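Run log // design_07
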């Protein structure tokens, strides 16, 4: 059973306009075409939808229900078309944990000033692609490489690795720490979206690990002193907590911040976003 959009539009037009003649005018087709289209819809559904007299056309009981559904379907389709046509008037940038750290407000403000015709939206999505694979965003801020067969990316900046410990932890009294200072601790990691695993340490001095899947849980566990964490500098900017101390890990490699997009469907504003973010990270 195949119901076509033109059949639903025809049915709704007849009900709204009141006559076949007026529906034909509204649709820009002949009255005969309106009659044929309605007849084909009734045959497809196997039921009568309209009562026709010499004076008026009114829906049957079934017709009323079908018209109500048709209005919803047509509204959804019209919304889909508007989104496809005007999608480039919006730019959605996804991120998993922290967006752009201390650069986030500046990026939003500069974008609004320089490109007011393209609305910018930052969207937090806890997935490995920060919502890109799920279709939630047009670009994604990621801090580890994605599948190069599907996605392209550009490095826009580097961020220091920071250790996160409870505020009353002895390491919190230091200005910085080394990887060796954490090897005897339990490291709380997010293998799905995180940037740190035990492989960052030499094989003979790797810390024990526990897993988490949410930044709020990560912060709660660390503040209680059960585990320590390691994260990008942006996390400290976006999630300061009274019970958490962030300290630089001076012998850990920095983390590359990437902007990623679908290889076969880049947003027109991609290069503009790359250039603005690169400038912000370069200028500190």
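design_07 sequence
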């Amino acid at each position: 059973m195949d119901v076509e959009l033109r059949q639903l539009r025809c049915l709704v037009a007849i009900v709204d306009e009141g006559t076949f003649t007026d529906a034909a005018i509204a649709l820009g087709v002949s009255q005969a075409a309106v009659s044929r289209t309605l007849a084909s819809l009734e045959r497809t559904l196997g039921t009568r939808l309209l009562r026709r007299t010499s004076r008026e056309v009114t829906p049957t009981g079934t017709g009323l229900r079908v018209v109500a559904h048709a209005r919803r379907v047509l509204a959804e389709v019209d919304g889909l078309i508007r989104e496809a046509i005007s999608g480039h008037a919006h730019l959605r940038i996804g991120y998993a944990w922290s967006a752009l750290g201390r650069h986030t407000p500046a990026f939003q403000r500069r974008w609004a000033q320089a490109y007011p015709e393209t609305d910018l939206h930052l969207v937090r999505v806890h997935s490995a692609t920060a919502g890109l694979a799920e279709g939630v965003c047009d670009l994604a801020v990621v801090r580890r490489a994605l599948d190069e067969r599907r996605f392209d990316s550009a490095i826009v900046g580097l961020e220091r690795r920071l250790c996160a410990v409870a505020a009353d932890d002895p390491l919190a009294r230091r200005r910085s720490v080394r990887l060796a200072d954490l090897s005897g601790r339990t490291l709380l990691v997010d293998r799905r979206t995180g940037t740190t695993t035990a492989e960052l340490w030499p094989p003979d001095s790797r810390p024990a690990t526990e897993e988490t899947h949410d930044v709020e849980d990560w912060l709660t566990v660390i503040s209680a002193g059960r585990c320590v964490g390691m994260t990008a500098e942006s996390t400290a900017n976006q999630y300061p907590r009274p019970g958490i101390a962030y300290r630089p890990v001076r012998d850990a490699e920095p983390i590359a911040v990437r902007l990623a997009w679908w290889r076969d469907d880049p947003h027109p504003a991609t290069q503009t976003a790359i250039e603005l973010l690169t400038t912000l990270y370069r200028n500190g």
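The helical segments are 5-17, 20-27, 31-45, 61-86, 104-114, 215-223, 233-238, 270-282.
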